[in-house]
Amino acid sequence: MECLVLGAAAGGGFPQWNCGCPNCVRARSGDPAASPRTQASVAVCGDGARWLLVGASPDLRQQILANDALAPPPGSRLSPIAGVVLVSADVDGIAGLLVLREQHRFRLFAPASILQVLAANGIFASLDAALVERVEISPGIETDTGLGLALTLLAMPGKVPLYQEAERSAAQAATAPTFAARLRAGNRVCVVAPACADLTDTVVAQLSDAEVLFFDGTLFHDNEMIDSGLGWKTGRRMGHVSVSGPDGALARLADLRARKIFFHINNSNPMLLDDSDARRTVDAAGFTVAHDGLRVTL
Fold it and tell me: From 248's CA, which of 21, 78, 121, 199 has a CA 20 to 30 Å away?
């Protein structure tokens, strides 16, 4: 199994186009300790030829061009991208589907709730139904993708997409589920979990057999957006557990056997900086901060 990080940043990327926070200033200046990153997506290959994307980032075209493994063979229009699995209906996770509209055949895997979002928005009809098969996946049930990978959607505590919050009460908006993708090739397992609001015992147990875990690294501290003056929501209200703290990912995932890799990292997060105390803390705990192009072989 091959795992390839196409994008390691959260929504807006790093640097974010409209942000002048200290991290983004350093990235924009070309500081080698503040490497730019595109928006989160991971590609997985189980048969040495075909790739399944977890998430369709708005930066997908740029990411495909940056990775030779996703290039079509010379003289063809046959992309090795053979499938996409959607784990949330956030704009950051579905907008890249529109990049794949040029008469390319692939399978689109998603739970009913996300397929309903696509069906309700006519712009996604640009994906020719004769070429793009939409496959409904029931969470918790392993499904053969036909690509050398078995897929299971794992329910994660989360929230509804931002554009749906106005349609719901505050309580409903803040407690809707999102998903992680568990992918298995033979006895090799990776899990891709870009969003998780709470590392409950149930969630940790679901992650326990992964050899590689790509996990939500959005914020280092729960109040990070508030303290930095960039927003008014806590991390949990945004649907993301913090990296630090007694209930954070560093503490709650410490005993897992997996290689643990943070991705979906917000531009405000100090661990993006190679020379920060936060990065030193993450490194000392045995976790990895992902960068675009990071490749892991199982």
Answer: 21
Specify the pTM: 0.95
Listed in sequence order, the residues at least 6 apart from 40 whose beta carbon sits closer than 8 Å to its beta carbon are 7, 8, 9, 10, 55, 57, 92, 93, 194, 263, 264
Residue with structure tokens 């979002």? 117
Q: Nearest to residue 105, comparing CAs of 73, 74, 129?
A: 129
Q: What does 23-58 look like in DSSP terms, one character per residue?
A: HHHHHHTT-TTS--B-B-EEEEESSSS-EEEES--T
Query: Which pLDDT score, from 0 to 100, does residue 65 have?
Result: 97
State the DSSP code for 122. G
Check if the beta carbon of residue 163 is closer than 8 Å to that of residue 126: no
Domain ranges of the chain: 2-291
Question: May I ask the CATH architecture of the domain 2-291?
Answer: 4-Layer Sandwich (3.60)
pLDDT in tens, 263-293: 999 999 999 999 999 999 999 999 999 999 9
List, for the chain, all residue ranges whose pLDDT scores fall below the cut of 70.
Answer: 162, 165-176
